[in-house]
Amino acid sequence: MPELPEVETIARNLRPLLEGRCIQSASLLWERTVAEPGAEEFAERIVGQLIRSVGRRGKFIVFSLSQDTLLIHLRMSGDLLIEPTCQPPATHHRLLLALDNGQRLAFNDTRKFGRVWLVSDPQTVLGDLGPEPLDISFTAAQFFQRLHAVRRQLKPLLLDQCFLAGLGNIYTDEALHLARLHPLTSAQSVDEAQAACLLQAIRDVLEEGIRRNGASIDWVYRGGDFQNYFRVYQRTGQPCPVCGTSVQRIVVGQRGTHFCPLCQPF
């Protein structure tokens, strides 16, 4: 699943191609792609709306329209493509939005897990998301307070989008290694200095991921090269870049988790 850096990269690439364009028509090739409203209302309501801006909130791509907000979550296999309107739809295209310049925005989703919302108030969908980790107004002190407000282990907590928005398996493992914290560490045992270090580590790996256009580790997302700079993720048995100890893999909350047993003692 694309995480914050991959989604941010997609949004940045789409921005100059879509901002200022008007949606001329909507073709739903798989109706369940639209989570809200109903398929018929969606197709009618979105036509004629201007795409004012393209952004991101957590793992959602946010299209601010002239009347509504279009939200897209790519989930496991979603992708967004700009292509000529006259081109025959690809096998796994689920939604086509024709634009006023002869191009269209195509939502391709092999596994059909991705979802689209057209809402007047984006907070009805985004309201439960946690803080943006790259938001400079989110302080280390606030992060420390949030850690101590729950009784959970760090790895599953950081994956919880209601706790912090945008992190997934890759960048959580990378950040915990950079901060030298074991993934099974209790959030309430993290002191203020460790919390500040962890927040900075999260920001560092996310910013590096964005600089490298994300990580391309399978057929779902292509175009980034952060995978060439992983510290521990998917490096089981390989030497830790800090101490040389073999990277280990465990399962935490049904998610493969990678760490260095020397740099990240439990």
Features:
single chain, 266 residues, alpha+beta, N-terminal domain of MutM-like DNA repair proteins, Helicase, Ruva Protein, domain 3, 2 domains, 5-stranded mixed beta sheet, 4-stranded antiparallel beta sheet, elongated
Question: How many E strands?
Answer: 11
Which residues sit in consecutive blocks of at least 5 with pLDDT less than 50?
none
Order of helices and strands: HEEHEEEEEEEHHHHHEE
CATH architecture classification of the largest domain: Alpha-Beta Barrel
Largest sheet: 5 strands, mixed
* Ends distance: 28 Å
Q: Number of helical segments?
A: 7
Instruction: Give the overall shape, derived from the CA principal axes.
Output: elongated
The CATH topology of the largest domain is given as N-terminal domain of MutM-like DNA repair proteins
Walk across the major sheet and give the strand order: 2-9-5-4-3
Number of domains: 2
What would you report as the Rg, rounded to the nearest angstrom?
20 Å
- Average pLDDT taken over every residue: 96
CATH class of the largest domain reads Alpha Beta
Tell me roughly what share of residues is in helical segments.
25-40%
CATH superfamily of the largest domain: MutM-like, N-terminal
The secondary-structure class comes to alpha+beta
